[in-house]
Every structure is written in structure tokens, then in C-alpha cells.
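Postdoc handover notes: sequence design on the structure in folder B. Input C-alpha cells:
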């Protein structure tokens, strides 16, 4: 290559190489046995030039290399680097990786329950830990040069996302920020905000996956490609596989089995057999069949996403029951050795309770589940074995897609619908991209595979749209909290705090959306000027004349609505007087005519077409029509009052579901009342005829000079357009008013409430406020009020653990049918007092217009974990506690870890000299034992 260069070119190339060797990037590149991608090089060069960077790249593309370069720069410059992650599992994994590269003396770890070498030059931590350091003014921040925020797209998380923005806003200006994100469709917008609050920030977006992804559909015994390349005039465009579209049409067509009416004989057996064969190609294979098929196609290891914990466990059991084995004898022995080493510290009694032996059998066969309900140690083992290739089929919930580094050759999606906490909803293109992003292991696979199982009613076109869309916008979930307010005011005062909050990404996005609305308002105002000119009348002020016409129309409409409402009230009152056995005439609707009332439907409290009615809808009588139909009518069928024409007895033996019963009773109805004619309802005199306002407005209209204009109606049409556009413009202006300064307005309301409760005094924070500053979490203010009122004084450690659990626990599904079991005595009284205090705070929040629906304020404390926390802190065994709690071990450990965290906060914030701080520390010791103590991940 160099031989073909001129001397000048060779000199220039040598000079460039020498310049590259002089950079920090050159020795860093030599630490890896693979070359860096262009986006990685671009980001590292920007970092070395002193710029902040935002790197948005697909899962598995290697964006963490940029974070590791920040670590390398910090060590080279003698400065500190904090590497933050959203979850403890990721922190532990990154800590292990960095220790291998730089040594244990240079790398530390700080999570909610782990502190290792915390003063090291490189510290891995969860984002919340860094936020707390910033608010407390920790000395560890001295010398900090770089902060890496891994998975920064977590700021969209509605529960924890605000923490990321708090850190970004409050980091010292001297700190260089490295933001690593999944592929998002508004990376430039996020980069613009970072540029605004952090200074010069380079945005690097990598769209290409390092390993190509192929999309498939598994139906019956065949794996179909989702897309088909067309090399015709379209120039290699992708289209939906016509075979899949044919399958969908075949499934949607109705079977033609049965009798042929034209020939009066059954379909020929050969035709029926052909139809059976065609349809037998369309079925959803079982979970063991899917794994077996992927194994035969060489597509393992695979992660199958099932949006249910129970579904994941059931999938493993189904594979075991089918006799599926993915490991040979050597693999089984390796698995057993690793598992026994990792679980050696767990007592045998606990292993039995945790379902260890069933779990181990699945692992030995190369099959496992992975979800939040599992013991953290078990999840870690599954991850380790999967990376080593000893577990080849994992059934996981979607939480794995957002968590640790666990790539596979293939990803399987059973369904494209999941429960979102409120309803079953289709997964979004962003969720689909996140889930399938796990497919394809860099450096191992030449391609990854996403396989969607065929489900009845599947639309291949819709699936192609899901797979082909790359819209995954980053949306801020930032909301001020009580703790945030006192910490900000303490450091910056009210005015500066307000300015800082207006720098949030949430306000940035709101303000940006206002730009478009403002532009529309400006356009509308130009249109209004034009309309105003077109409605000018040479006889007088047409705008005034138009106002009179509009007032007249509004008054007539108002009177018409009042009349309709009065008629509805009269009709409902008449319906409420009906009794079973009344013969009525239904005035209108599909079932108009003679009818017998079977049930008047006037018992309030039950709806949905059953007995009773909704107070807003009115009675819904169940009637038998003269045509033998039993129907529940609605108030819409009775626009005018109805009264009984006659009465007749309903036999006790009458059964509305029996055709014979309906026929007999309808016949009796026609015989008894068929000759009756309902009295005609006279329409009442219009109120408009006697209304003084209408008379006045009509007189004023006729007297106005413009009334006699020959072009009056032409002017009126322009006036109507003018007022319609004016109304739309006013609505847009209200939207602008509602969006600007929204965060600051919420902050003002929070400060007003805190001032009323004596946590703030103007720009000063009181002693009570300083206590609140040490309490983090959703129920920070409730915890502070409990400490102030001495609610927890005199409690034992287990009793305090029960009370503190209500501050962190939140049931996965609301269940108000059964009251939770609670400890007796002082703990029960303290819990009841906590609920009373919450009720007082809830009323205060309502007074100050602090809206919980918008994610601000205090939710009601959940007492569902109090009994389990009390029993565990009292020393009861794991089997007893889990059996009574009816809770998976992983959930139990996670809630205990959060309970330990909040107990630590209570110990730090409790008034000196009281008993609560000592009791909280003892409670921590009572909870941090057994299965909770030996679980290294929270």
C-alpha cells in the first residue's frame, strides 16, 4: 500500500500515525484484541478533546467502550471517574469487569447495600448513590473529572427517571459527562439539552447493529422469514413475505365443512381432508417444540420473552416434562460444580424452600427461567451459565431486556401483547426493538435472529411495521419531590432552585413543544386580521352585529338543552315508577311497541346490563316485547315519559331464557293489551317564545344598520370563520400557558406546603427540613412527619421494621378484597397512625393542588408487607415467612433490601437522644440475615 504512495503522501501518513500515537486513545486501543468501530473512535476523540458525549447505539454495539475510555482518561490524568448504572446487577457486573482490567486497588463499588474501596479513583455506583452524594456535598466529589451514565435512557422511567436529571443538572461544571443510551429517535433533542446544561456535548448516533438481525415467524413446523427482499424496480426494498400473508388469509377464512345445500349432501371426504391438511400448517408450537426446533436449526442459545413470571416457570417445567436435554454429561457436571460453589453459603433448609433442586435440574439440562421473582443469587448463576454457554434456553420477563449484558443468538417473542399494569396492550416499536436487541452476540454470531410465534389473528403487516419502525423517543419523567425541594433550597435558595428546575429536560421538552404552538398562534393571528377585513360592512359595525347573532344562537341553544334535560328528567321519573307486570308502549328505538316490564331496573349500584342502573344513565327496564324478545332497554329508548297502559301477572314459572315461556307470555300480552293505544305525548310550548333575552336580542338585531345590508349573509360567513379561528387561537394560548414554567409551578406548590408544615422559612431550611433532606423515597414527607410526631418511639426492632415496610412496599397488583394481616399491639397502632398522618397530608396536597396522578405527592402507605417484615425481623424461618407472605423469594429479598435502605435513612434522620435511631439499626441487623444477607444483588 505504502509503495503506491508518493513521498509527500508517505510523509503525511507517517505524521498522522505519530500524532495518533501521542494521544491517550492509542494505548487504550491496544488494550483490546479487536478494532474499535468508527462511532467508538469518534466518541473517544471527542472525550479526549474535552467535550462531553452522548452515545446512542443499539444494544450489544459496544458503547460501554466509550465509558471505559473515560475511566482510562481519569486514571491517566490523576482524576476520579464515577461509573453509574441504573441497577445493582449492572453495577456489580461493571465492577467485576473494571477490577479485572485495572486491579482491585483502583476500583470501588457503592450500591445501597455494598461499599467496597469507596475512595478509589474509579467507583462504580447506582445513580441514586451519586444523587445523594451531590445533595450531601460529599468529600468524595473532590477531584472528580468524569461521570459515566450508563443506560441514561432510564430517565424515561416514571418512578426513578428524575434521579438522572438531578445528577446531570447538579454535577459540577468541571465534570465531563459521558451519557450512554440505547438507540432513541430524539437523540439530537436530548443532546441539545445536554449542550444547554452541561456545555459542549458531542452527539454520536450509531444506527447499524454490529450483528445483522433477521426477523422470522414460527408457525407450525416451519420458520418463515418475515421480510422478502425484492430486487426489482424498487431497488432491493423489503416486503412482507407473501407466504405469511397467505397463511393469515387461510386462517381467517371460515371452514367449509358441513352440508352442500345445492346438492343436499355432505362435502366429499377428499375435500375435507385437503382443508384439514392446509389448516394443519397453522398452529402455535409448544414451548418444548420451539426450543427443539431452534436447536435443530442451530439457533441456540435463545432467550424467550414471556410477559409473566408464572409463565416463565411453567415454560421450564414443560421443557423438563417433555424430556428436553440441551447439555451433554460433561456440561451437566460443569453446571453442578458452578452451582454448588455459588450456593455453598445457603443453608440446606433454605435451599429446599427456594426450590433449589428443581432449579438445578433445569440448569443441568441447559434450561432456566429469569425474572424479578427469583432469588438474586439464582439469577446471577443463570446469567453466568448462559454467558458460558451452559444454559442454552432462558425464559425471561421483559426486565432482562433492560438489564445486564446477556446476549443470545436468538430471541423468541411468544406474544406481542403484554399487561402494562392497567390493561393488556400491544408492545410498542421501542419495546420490540429493546427485546429483539439481545439477538446476535458480537464476535461470536455472524447474524442474530428474532422469532415471533404465530398466534391466532396475527397480522403479518402489523408485525412488519413493528419490526421496521425505529421510533423510541426519550421522554422526561422529571417531577420535583419534597426531598428534592429542601435539598435545593438548602444549597441554592428558592429563586436559584426554581431556575435550576427550569433547566430540566422535562421543561426543555415542554418549551420546545410550545415553539410549534406559538408559531401556529402567530399564523392564526394573521388569518384573523384577514377575516376581520373581509367582514367589514359599509352600513355599520358588522363585528357588533355578528356578536348579537352569536349571543342569540347561544341563548337558543342553551334553552334547547334545558328543555331536553327537563324532558329527560321527566322520562327518568316516569321510568322509576314502573313495576314488574306493567304493560307499556316503548315510544322509539329498535324495540318500539307493546312491552311487558319484567324488571324495572331501578335498584342503583349494579350496571353493565345487569340488574340495576347507573345513576347517570337512569333506570334500564328489562322487558318482554310483543315479538317474544327479552331485552334490557336504556333511557335513550324513552325520549318522552312513559306510563303503564295496563297490568298483568307474570307467572312464577316464567323463565326469560326459555323460548316456550317467552312465546306463551308474549301471546298473553298481545291478547290482553294488543288493542290499547298509547296517548300521544304533546310537545310543550317552546321556552324561547317567552324568553325575554331572546326577544331583546331579536329586536336589537332588526334595529342594527347591518341587518339591511344586501351582503349580510356573505359578511356573516366571514364573521363565523373569524370567531371559529379566534376560539381555536384562545385554546392554543391556554395550552402555551399550561406548558411553560410547569416544573417551577409545581416546585412553588411544594414549597408552599413545606412552609405551612415548618420545613421551610423563606430561603432557609428549618431543623425539620434538614431531617427531611436525609429521607429519600416516594413517602419521604410521611416518614419525616412520623419522626416529628414520635409515632415510632417505643417500638421494638421488628415492630419498626413492620412500620418502615409501609414506606417502601407496593403490591404488584392492587387487591382491596382482603385486608392485610398486621402485627398486634404497638406496631398495629403505629401503622394506623401512619395511615391517619397520610390522610392529613393527602388533604393538604389537595389544598395546594399537588396532583398524585401527575407523579407528585405521597401515595397511600401499603401495609401488605408489614406482617412478613415483622416475622422475618423477629427471627422466624424463611419457609414460614414465605408461606404466609405468598411471595416469591426474589420479591421478598428485594423488598427486604429496600426496607434495610429506608431503615438506614430513618437511623440517620431520627432526632438525637431518642430511641428510634438505635431501634432502626437493630432492625437492620434483624432483616439483614439468612437469604437476604447472602444475596449479593438487591
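Designed sequence:
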Amino acid at each position: 500500500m505504502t509503495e503506491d504512495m508518493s513521498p509527500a503522501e508517505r510523509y503525511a501518513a507517517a505524521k498522522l500515525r505519530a500524532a495518533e500515537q501521542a494521544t491517550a486513545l492509542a494505548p487504550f486501543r491496544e488494550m483490546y484484541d479487536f478494532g474499535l468501530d468508527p462511532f467508538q473512535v469518534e466518541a473517544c476523540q471527542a472525550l479526549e478533546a474535552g467535550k462531553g458525549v452522548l452515545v446512542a447505539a443499539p444494544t450489544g454495539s459496544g458503547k460501554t467502550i466509550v465509558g471505559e475510555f473515560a475511566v482510562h482518561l481519569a486514571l491517566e490524568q490523576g482524576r476520579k471517574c464515577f461509573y453509574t448504572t441504573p441497577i445493582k446487577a449492572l453495577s456489580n457486573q461493571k465492577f467485576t469487569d473494571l477490577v479485572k482490567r485495572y486491579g482491585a486497588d483502583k476500583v470501588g463499588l457503592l450500591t445501597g447495600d455494598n461499599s467496597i474501596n469507596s475512595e478509589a479513583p474509579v467507583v462504580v455506583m447506582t445513580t441514586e448513590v451519586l444523587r445523594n452524594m451531590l445533595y450531601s456535598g460529599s468529600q468524595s466529589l473532590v477531584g472528580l473529572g468524569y461521570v459515566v451514565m450508563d443506560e441514561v435512557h432510564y430517565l424515561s422511567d416514571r418512578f426513578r427517571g428524575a434521579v438522572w436529571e438531578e445528577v446531570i443538572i447538579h454535577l459540577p461544571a468541571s465534570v465531563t459527562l459521558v451519557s450512554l443510551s440505547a438507540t432513541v429517535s430524539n437523540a439530537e433533542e436530548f443532546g441539545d439539552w445536554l449542550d444547554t446544561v452541561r456545555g459542549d456535548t458531542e452527539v454520536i448516533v450509531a444506527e447499524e447493529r454490529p450483528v445483522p438481525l433477521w426477523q422470522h415467524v414460527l408457525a407450525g413446523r416451519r420458520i418463515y422469514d418475515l421480510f422478502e427482499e425484492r430486487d426489482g424496480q424498487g431497488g432491493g426494498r423489503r416486503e412482507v413475505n407473501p407466504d405469511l400473508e397467505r397463511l393469515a388469509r387461510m386462517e381467517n377464512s371460515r371452514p367449509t365443512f358441513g352440508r352442500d345445500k345445492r346438492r343436499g349432501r355432505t362435502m366429499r371426504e377428499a375435500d375435507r381432508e385437503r382443508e384439514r391438511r392446509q389448516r394443519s400448517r397453522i398452529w402455535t408450537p409448544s414451548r418444548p417444540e420451539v426450543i427443539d426446533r431452534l436447536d435443530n436449526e442451530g439457533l441456540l442459545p435463545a432467550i424467550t420473552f414471556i410477559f409473566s413470571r408464572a409463565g416463565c416457570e411453567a415454560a421450564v417445567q414443560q421443557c423438563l416434562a417433555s424430556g428436553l436435554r440441551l447439555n451433554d454429561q460433561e456440561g451437566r457436571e460443569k453446571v453442578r460444580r458452578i452451582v454448588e460453589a455459588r450456593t455453598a453459603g445457603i443453608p440446606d433448609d433454605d435451599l429446599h424452600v427456594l426450590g433449589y433442586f428443581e432449579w438445578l435440574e433445569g440448569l443441568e439440562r441447559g434450561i432456566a427461567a429469569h425474572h424479578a421473582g427469583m432469588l438474586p443469587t439464582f439469577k446471577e448463576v443463570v446469567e453466568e451459565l448462559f454467558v458460558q454457554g451452559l444454559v442454552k434456553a432462558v425464559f425471561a420477563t421483559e426486565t432482562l431486556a433492560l438489564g445486564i449484558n446477556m446476549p443470545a443468538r436468538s430471541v423468541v417473542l411468544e406474544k406481542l401483547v403484554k399487561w402494562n399494569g392497567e390493561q393488556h396492550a400491544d408492545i410498542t416499536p421501542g419495546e420490540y426493538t429493546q427485546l429483539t436487541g439481545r439477538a446476535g452476540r458480537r464476535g461470536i454470531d455472524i447474524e442474530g435472529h428474532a422469532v415471533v410465534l404465530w398466534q391466532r389473528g396475527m397480522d403479518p403487516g402489523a408485525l412488519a411495521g413493528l419490526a421496521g419502525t425505529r421510533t423510541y423517543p426519550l421522554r422526561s419523567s422529571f417531577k420535583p419531590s419534597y426531598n428534592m425541594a429542601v435539598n435545593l433550597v438548602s444549597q441554592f435558595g428558592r429563586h436559584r432552585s426554581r431556575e435550576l428546575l427550569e433547566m430540566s429536560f422535562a421543561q426543555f421538552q415542554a418549551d420546545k413543544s410550545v415553539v410549534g404552538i406559538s408559531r401556529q398562534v402567530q399564523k392564526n393571528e394573521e388569518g384573523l386580521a384577514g377575516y376581520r377585513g373581509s367582514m367589514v360592512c359599509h352600513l355599520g359595525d358588522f363585528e357588533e352585529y355578528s356578536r348579537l347573532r352569536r349571543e342569540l344562537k347561544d341563548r337558543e341553544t342553551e334553552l334547547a338543552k334545558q328543555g331536553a334535560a327537563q324532558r329527560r328528567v321527566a322520562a327518568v321519573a316516569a321510568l322509576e315508577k314502573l313495576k314488574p307486570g306493567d304493560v307499556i308502549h316503548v315510544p322509539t328505538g329498535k324495540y318500539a311497541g307493546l312491552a311487558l316490564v319484567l324488571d324495572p331496573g331501578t335498584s342503583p349500584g349494579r350496571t353493565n346490563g345487569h340488574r340495576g342502573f347507573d345513576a347517570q344513565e337512569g333506570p334500564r327496564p328489562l322487558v318482554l316485547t310483543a315479538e317474544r324478545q327479552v331485552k334490557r332497554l336504556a333511557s335513550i329508548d324513552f325520549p318522552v315519559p312513559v306510563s303503564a297502559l295496563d297490568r298483568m301477572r307474570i307467572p312464577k314459572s316464567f323463565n326469560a331464557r326459555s323460548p316456550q315461556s317467552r312465546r306463551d307470555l308474549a301471546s298473553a300480552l298481545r291478547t290482553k293489551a294488543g288493542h290499547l293505544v298509547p296517548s300521544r305525548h304533546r310537545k310543550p310550548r317552546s321556552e324561547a317564545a317567552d324568553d325575554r333575552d331572546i326577544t331583546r336580542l331579536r329586536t336589537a338585531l332588526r334595529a342594527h344598520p347591518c341587518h339591511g345590508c344586501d351582503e349580510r349573509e356573505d359578511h356573516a360567513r366571514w364573521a363565523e370563520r373569524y370567531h371559529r379561528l379566534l376560539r381555536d387561537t384562545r385554546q392554543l394560548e391556554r395550552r402555551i400557558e399550561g406548558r411553560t414554567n410547569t416544573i417551577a409551578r409545581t416546585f412553588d406548590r411544594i414549597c408552599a406546603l413545606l412552609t405551612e408544615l415548618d420545613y421551610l422559612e423563606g430561603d432557609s431550611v428549618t431543623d425539620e427540613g434538614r431531617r427531611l433532606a436525609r429521607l429519600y423515597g416516594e413517602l419521604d414527607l410521611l416518614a419525616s412527619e412520623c419522626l416529628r410526631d414520635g409515632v415510632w418511639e417505643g417500638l421494638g426492632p421488628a415492630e419498626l421494621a413492620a412500620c418502615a415496610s409501609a414506606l417502601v412496599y407496593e403490591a404488584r397488583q392492587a387487591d382491596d378484597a382482603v385486608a392485610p394481616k398486621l402485627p398486634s399491639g404497638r406496631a398495629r397502632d403505629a401503622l394506623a397512625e401512619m395511615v391517619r398522618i397520610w390522610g392529613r397530608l393527602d388533604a393538604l396536597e389537595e389544598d395546594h393542588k399537588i396532583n398524585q396522578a401527575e407523579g407528585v405527592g405521597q401515595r397511600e402507605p401499603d401495609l401488605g408487607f408489614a406482617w412478613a417484615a415483622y416475622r422475618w425481623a423477629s427471627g422466624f424461618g424463611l419457609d414460614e415467612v414465605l408461606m404466609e407472605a405468598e411471595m416469591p423469594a426474589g420479591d421478598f429479598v428485594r423488598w427486604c433490601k429496600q426496607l434495610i435502605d429506608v431503615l438506614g435513612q430513618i437511623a440517620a434522620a431520627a432526632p438525637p437522644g431518642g430511641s428510634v435511631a438505635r431501634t432502626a439499626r437493630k432492625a437492620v441487623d434483624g432483616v439483614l440475615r439468612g437469604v437476604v444477607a447472602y444475596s449479593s444483588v438487591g
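Context for whoever picks this up: The mean pLDDT is 83. Don't rerun without checking with the PI first.
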